[in-house]
Design a protein that fits this description.
Blueprint lengths: L7 E5 L4 H12 L3 E6 L2 H10 L4 E5 L5 H15 L2 E6 L14 H22 L3 E10 L12 H21 L5 E7 L2 E2 L1 H5 L3 H6 L10 E2 H12 L10 E4 L7
Parallel strand pairs: 1-2, 1-4, 2-3, 4-5, 5-6, 6-9, 7-8
Length: about 240
């Protein structure tokens, strides 16, 4: 039997990278999938690539109105939700002394406030046995220069996984996190960091970057009954970078 047979799954930030890989994998495992995005270009590309695989919806992952509408529309259409993969996020780097304060506000809006609101609005319509998966990052436990804002948002998200898990345990909804290491996704090229990121391979014991498919497989494990006795946990998928 497929691991997500007859399940309703929602993936935020599902038009590229890890979210797109997860959409394909969750659908292959039997789920009815809806993905969200905010960039018109990637939304259109995802609609073409995910035809017959997943519904693609325009929704700003940090907008209170968009998140509330998304939860309302999904619940009205499907009745309930079984899997919520809160994958959407943005990356803003810069030293504390020179970084624009607006970048801090926008990062927390999308990376933390958005997932918090998604849990708030989706949790009441999630079935017993449902799973929420947060996409954190290994930066939440590191002290890399220039990553103060991004790392802080991901540390806050890791904390949210614990408190949400505690609050939702009584209703049978599990909350866990997948913590990707350095992953080969389009976001690095977009930020002009592709060369720098490739150079990090030497710091990874497995001597390569992770792939979006590998992160999606970890999210699938947490989304499915394979992890049915896990909640409040964070799985690190980083090729040993923070472990060895």
């Amino acid at each position: 039997m497929k691991r997500l047979e007859n399940k309703i799954a929602v993936i935020t930030g599902g038009t590229t990278g890890i979210g797109l890989a997860a959409a394909k994998l969750f659908a292959a495992e039997g789920a009815t999938v809806t993905v969200t995005g905010a960039n018109p270009a990637t939304l259109e590309a995802a609609r073409r690539e995910l035809t017959g695989v997943a519904d693609v919806v325009a929704s700003d992952a940090g907008s209170p109105a968009d998140i509330a509408a998304l939860a309302r529309d999904i619940t009205a259409k499907h009745g309930a939700v079984d899997v919520l993969f809160l994958n959407a996020g943005i990356t803003r780097y810069g030293f504390i002394t020179s970084m624009d304060e607006a970048a801090l506000d926008e990062s927390f809006r999308v990376n933390f406030k958005g997932p918090w609101l998604a849990i708030k609005h989706f949790a009441p319509s999630m079935r017993r046995g449902a799973s929420i998966v947060l996409n954190t990052s290994i930066t939440n436990r590191m002290g890399r220069p220039g990553a103060s804002v991004y790392a802080a948002t991901k540390a806050a998200l890791r904390s949210l996984a614990r408190t949400a898990a505690a609050e939702l345990a009584g209703s049978g909804v599990r909350v866990n996190a997948v913590s990707p290491g350095v992953t080969d996704t389009p976001i690095h090229a977009k930020l002009g960091l592709a060369e720098m990121v490739r150079g990090l391979s030497a710091q990874i014991p497995l001597q390569r970057l992770g792939t979006a498919d590998e992160m999606a497989k970890a999210a699938l494990f947490l989304a499915s009954a394979d992890s049915s006795f896990m909640t409040g946990e964070e799985i690190v998928v980083d090729g040993g970078m923070t472990r060895l």
